[in-house]
Design goal:
The chain has about 210 residues and is of the alpha+beta class. It has 7 helices and 5 strands.
Length: about 210
């Protein structure tokens, strides 16, 4: 399931997240308009940034912290990936899980950014209503070969920082959070939350300096 093409497309998705903070974002901007506007800009940016194309993890991590985190409900993403055990986790464990999960995603997909070449994003028909609080924005990555499905699930957040935030993404029919939940579940059952944290930390240490 986690083949090279899958990694490459997730790299493009990760790159799109990086652009979510690159422009002032109107709280009432439609989610499909947000994805279209930023995806196009970010792909253009990657194509001209040799460091990102080369998988410079330190630069990518800096971008993640400054651009991605304010625009993604990462706590919800991590909680969904961990599953029911999240409810029993302490605040300290939750913080560690989010840190290690973020690092895992960045280090796993940083090398995939080098695969970005002539791709472009095309929007697929959307089904939304003004009252929706959670939507799926459907897109296609177009370049060499057949178009590939790349969908974003977003939720509308109220209050300060109101607007649409990404909570999951779907590449080639596979939802990212669901994929990791299926991996994390057996580890939690066998070794508990602390065991999962230790396992993620070890994977991140192993992935240091490597590209996928």
């Amino acid at each position: 399931m986690m083949n090279r093409r899958f990694f490459s497309l997730l790299g493009i998705a990760l790159a799109a997240w990086m652009g979510l903070g690159s422009m002032a974002r109107a709280a009432d901007e439609a989610p499909d308009a947000l994805v279209k506007r930023l995806s196009t800009e970010v792909l253009d940016t990657i194509k001209s940034d040799k460091a990102i194309q080369g998988g410079d993890v330190s630069k990518i991590m800096t971008l993640v912290d400054s651009k991605i985190m304010p625009n993604v409900n990462f706590q919800r993403m991590t909680a969904s990936a961990v599953g029911p055990a999240w409810r029993q986790a302490t605040p300290e464990q939750r913080t560690r899980l989010q840190e290690e999960f973020k690092t895992l995603l960045v280090r796993t997909y940083s090398g995939a950014l080098a695969q970005v070449s002539d791709q472009s994003i095309a929007m697929r028909p959307q089904r939304m209503s003004p009252d929706d609080k959670e939507v799926v924005v459907r897109t296609e990555v177009r370049g060499r070969g057949d178009p590939v499905q790349l969908d974003y699930r977003l939720e509308k957040t109220p209050g300060e920082g109101a607007g649409w935030k990404i909570i999951n993404l779907n590449v080639l029919g596979v939802w990212l959070v669901d994929t990791y939940r299926s991996q994390f579940g057996p580890e939690i059952n066998a070794k508990g939350i602390d065991g999962l944290i230790a396992s993620l930390a070890e994977r991140n240490k192993t992935n240091t300096g490597k590209k996928s």
